[in-house]
Amino acid sequence: MTSIVAAAVLAWAAAARVQVKAASQAQAAGQAPAGQAPGGGAQRGGRGQSTFTGGNPSNVDATAVRTSRLLFPAGSRSNWHTHSWGQLLMIEKGKGRTQVRGGPVKEMLPGQPWWTPANVEHWHGAAPDQEALQLTIYEGTVNWLEPVTDKDYLATPAK
Fold it and tell me: Comparing C-alpha atoms, which of 7, 14, 132, 117 is closest to residue 62?
């Protein structure tokens, strides 16, 4: 269930990022944002239907949400760290690794979201033999800690 929620949050955050960027570009060009008619209402489909059912969603302020795409070279990883809000990760390409302090090393594959709750010490990076392109979404502060040892990083991932 957690991975379904994480996937939904990841999809929401990616869509919100695209919508905010498109709205900013449209406003700069003097156009209505995507999904809105010039008067601010929902755009209608080809047959006079709204693109939403049951009401029109509105953009919620996402200025504090930070998104990054990080390309970790094979064999690299972050230091141990925490996020005050939590962190959502997803591998887009390659193979990654992550670990919550005290837990097993886990392998991350493309399309599998990974949620780390607020203030949980963890690290993430690439597999020893393969780079990893990671999409990361978080809010708040990051508290950086000590480097991850080779012993921790090279442990056999849990299945």
Answer: 14
Number of domains the chain contains: 1
What are the pLDDT digits (tens) for 51-63? 888 988 999 999 9
Strands 132-139 and 87-94: antiparallel
Longest dimension (CA), the chain: 61
Is 9 inside a domain boundary?
Answer: no
C-alpha distances in Å from residue 18, one per residue of 26, 27, 60, 135: 12, 14, 13, 14
Q: Is residue 125 part of a domain?
A: yes
Pair 85, 103: CB distance under 8 Å? no
Average predicted confidence (pLDDT) for the chain: 82
Strand order in the sheet with 65-72: 65-72, 132-139, 87-94, 113-116
Lookup: tokens for 134? 């990671």
| pLDDT tens by residue, 21-50 | 544 554 455 554 554 444 445 455 556 667
Which domain covers residue 131, as residue numbers?
66-153
